[in-house]
Fold each of these.
Amino acid sequence: MAYKLADEVYIVDHQDSPILYAPFDGVVARITPEMAREFEAARVDGTLPSRETIATLNSLGLVVPSDRPERALRGAWDESFKPVGVVYMVTAACNLRCTYCYADAGDYPVNLYNRQMALDAAKFVIDNAHEAGGDTAYLNFHGGGEPTLDLELIQTVVEWGRDYASTTYGDGIHVNASMVTNGLVSKSKAEWIASNIDSVQVSHDGPEPVHDLQRPTVRGGKSYSRVREVIQEFQSRVPDLMIKATISRATVARMPEIARYMCESFELDRFHFGPVLGTGRGRSVIFGEPDPIDFVRYYYQAQAIADEYGKTIVVSGALSTFPNVRRTFCGVTDPNFSLTSDGHISSCYEIMYDDDLRAPHAYYGRYDRESRSFVVDGNRIAKLRLHDVNAISKCKDCFAKWQCAGDCQARWYNSQTGDLETGADVRCEINRTLIRDRLLEIVSVS
Ligand code: SF4
Ligand code: SF4
């Protein structure tokens, strides 16, 4: 029988102790620099490694029969469209003017969300969930701007959807509602949300000086006190509550302080810290993307503080996936059924304006008012399903690819030109460093 080197094997550089990492075979091993060089040569141009290297690879189970099937995960060409969840991109309006907003919220004209379309979308996903034999349909309310500025839409859709599901399918379909909010909401709105929404993500950047520095109101006022109160109102009432703090260049060194503040202020087990995404106002010099080395360094300090409280700081999708493998970061390849206020269907929550040059990469259909149906391009859908980490050249030889899965696709394209970005960015550096550290921990190399 003929043999070959296993595919999906990576060499992770680390000083003079490289690591061999085969995520699909569950292998992490310390190797010599010479062995790493031989392995790379074998992979690039088929040069036969030395007997010693072959023996080591063999003992790790990485010399395999030449007819062993490819190990990469791939999507399949599939034009069907039966989503069981919808994402409403509720409004472009916002009552805050965050210094780093990726979506330039508040800078776009505001169109009132088409009510009939919203209800038709709810019916569509509830019927699909029933047809698929599932027990849950998902109604998600998302940005561009602040969804609670049109809470009346959210109330109408959630109440109508639950009523429709129970009248039509009895107890068969649960309608799960989720939303994001900046937390600057009135008492009566907060009360309705706490009583009716299953999952809420509130953006809150930390103690008062940090939060108010980055998240001023539309008139330049402070938002800290009300946001903190709202989170406390949601605690123990919203079944799945999450706080997300955005870390900019200006606040990266304060991550440990932010961690202590979160742990002492809120009765939650986990807090999400995410680096600014360098699009929209996130291109700011002061409040833009943090230095990746600083981010990782201060993350470890922040987690050490959270450990004192028995809590977790989540900073990277790649890290939370490890050691499991995946080919896509989010539902963008499903594709997501995200509906803009004027009826475009986008696979990405961030790409929602017609003048966004990334729109051709994400739009795949629209709502037809006459037939009250969702008209989609099956060819686009099938292409989106294949559009995962396998599709991007910069990820091809990256050792973090099967955990990172290319991360958020919105950053694959330049938001000003629509062109594919080819180089590693801040999030690549963060993901790779965190995964490398985890691998080093496994093989105990300091
Ligand atoms: S690609 Fe990024 S912005 Fe778009 S839906 Fe996925 S996570 Fe959200
Ligand atoms: S770290 Fe960067 S290059 Fe590596 S898989 Fe993620 S997005 Fe791709």
Amino acid sequence: MSFETTVCKYCNSPRTFNFLEDVYPLFAFPLDKKVKAGLKKSLASFVTNLKYFYCYDCGFVFSNISGDENKIIGQIYSQHYNYISPLLTGIASSEADDFVEITRPYFKNVSQVLEIGCFDGYVLKKLKDEGINVLGIEPGGNAACIARGAGIDVINSFFPAGEIGTRKFDVVFSRHVIEHVDNVYDFLSGQLKLTDTGTIIFETPSLDWFILNDLSEAFHPQHQILLGHKFILRLLRDLSIPGVSLLEREHRTVCVAALRPSEMFCTLDQAMGNILNTSSQVERKLASFQRNIKEKKDILTGLLSKHISNGDSIAVWGGGSFTGNLLAQVEELRKVEYIIDSDPRKCGMEFLHSDVDIFSPDVLKDKGINVLIIFSQFADEIVSRLSELNLNKTIKTIYRTFPVIEVITN
Ligand SMILES: [Zn+2]
């Protein structure tokens, strides 16, 4: 690794540190084979050498993705992103359900709510069912259609959207949007203009948790920035937001920022006191992060080599970005015969770095697969699905890989 330095993209400080570098695919999700063939012709490369920097002054984490690369990535995603709809399928809804649960106190006595990047409207539908007036903004046409079909009012656009007009909201929230934006300060100050007295909530991958647990799943080309506690508090201070509540859910941070704080919030100074210890642990961990990530990939390679040389029939469960990224980084993974996903729309599709079709879970019944490796943050949901399908008994060895690599059944 080069350990090159650069200037902080948030505060311009030169005190930055390059703590992670790896090869990443420009698109980490399965594609229709024709689309993939087209991309192969139009793109000079499927991958990018991604570097992440940490700023010791403000705590900002940002990647080296260039404006041009970002444009290409944005185009591919806006055309081909195929995340499963929790609203239509009931699958992959556990984190959204948890968000509704833990933020419930902040939606009490609230009448007007806006969600930025509402996707299929799953969370808004729940809030609407509780009697709240909801509006969503969603750039994805298909997702916006699903939400409208469920009776949710949606503006099909990126934020900020002119169609909002002069409407004001008690709560403006977003889930897994802020880590994709060019300018975090503008993103939040744009939301402040939509609420005079209210609350802004955002959910984002917890940088601190990923660093402290030696996990790299939050790092990929679509996440041009990542937010740890130190930086979140700096950002809120710069925006003159007086009260905050940081809710920690392992790999997710839910930040509730209040313009008129009640007793549910603490001041920024109090919050800073609470996170000081964790932030210095994170800074101490950065120097060994790259090495520890590489060690984990070596463990995965070793495990795959062992099963391949045993003549085992191996399947991977996970047609999402965990698998997509690892296929570009772990050569041994490209030898796996089956990739499985719960979403039937992905059947027959392929990742950029694999010529293996995506299969439905049914393939586990009749192909004599005896080793299954789960690459997903929804491993718990998948494991219960396996026992519903009675497959946990026929597969000899099942591994989960997130947050740690471990054997589930033997
Ligand atoms: Zn900085």
